[in-house]
Amino acid sequence: MFCTKNKYYIISSFVFHVYICRRANTVRVCIIISGLEIKPRSYAQAAAPDIEPAVPDLESIEQQVLNFFVSKGITVANRSIEVCHPLPQKDKKLKSAIIIRFVNRKEKTALLKQGKKLKGTNVYINEHPTKKNGDIAKQARFLKKHNWIQATWTSNCKIFLKLNGTPEEAKVLLIRDIQELERHKLQDNER
Questions:
Q1: Do 166 and 121 share a structural domain?
Q2: pTM for the predicted model, two decimal places
């Protein structure tokens, strides 16, 4: 348990995730890796590293992720990762997603650019949006699926969309709120 501004938190991976990645402006340096098979260390091994383990010592999650990246030709400096931990899964059969928080945005962007090297591995690297931006991105993908917009993408946790029309009419817009997205949906329906 730890205390910040008179609020007490019980440390679990979910609460720790919320504390680390939901502080102001820290979401911009977080990514989520899905589909990667990891072997988590037991709590006893992590809490008491001086005790001789009954089973061979497993690597930390951070080291396992770095080793996987090296095996795929992706370069990430160990010092650039601030926090690396798995997210809880509702279904135990699925591989848990791993969240990584970088020291700065440059390192995160460099890793995202190298994500093409993971083609065919069923491992995906994505930005970690806020709840609000995640909802906006989901709605934008829905609009794209129904051909109400030409394209949608995210960059540095910002959502962009490209309107339908000729190259002169197809503007690229930065969407900051769900109401902006609804306005563009209504404008396109009027055409």
A1: no
A2: 0.67
